[in-house]
C-alpha cells in the first residue's frame, strides 16, 4: 500500500501538478509586487551565473516583463514547465506552505 502511494506521489504528472499549484500561488504574490521579478533576476545572476539553466531563467526574468513572467508561471507550455523546474520563486512563499506544496 505504501509503495503504491509513493509511486502515485512520484508520478511525473502529479509532480507537475503540484509544481503548477505552487507557481500559481507564487504568481499571486508577484501580481501584488511585480518588482520582485527583477530582484530575483539579480539574485539568481549573482548566485548561479555559471549554471546554464540558471542563466536561462535569469535571462527570462531580465528580458520579460513582470506580467509575462507571472503568466508563464501559470501557463502549461513546455517553456513554462522548464521555468517552473528551475524556479527561483519558491522562497516567496511562507516556508510551511512551500514545504507542503513541494512534498
What does this structure look like?
- The protein is an all-alpha fold and 103 residues long.
- It starts with a helix and ends with a helix.
- 77% of the residues lie in helices and 0% in strands.
- It has helices at residues 2-10, 12-32, 36-47, 52-63, 66-74, 78-85, 95-102.
- The chain has one domain (12-102).
- The chain has seven helices and no strands.
- The mean pLDDT is 75.
- The chain is globular, with a radius of gyration of 14 Å.
Write a compact overview of the structure shown.
It is built from seven helices and no strands.
What descriptive keywords fit this protein?
103 residues; mainly alpha; 7 helices; 77% helix
What order do the SSEs take from the amino end to the carboxyl end, as H and E?
HHHHHHH
Low-confidence stretches: none
**Extended strand count:** 0
Morphology call: globular
Strand fraction: under 5%
What is the count of helical runs?
Answer: 7
Structural class: mainly alpha
**Domain module count:** 1
What can be said about the biggest beta sheet?
none
Q: For the CA atoms, what is the radius of gyration? A: 14 Å
Helix proportion: over 70%
> How far apart, in Å, are the first and last alpha carbons?
19 Å
Q: What's the mean pLDDT score?
A: 75
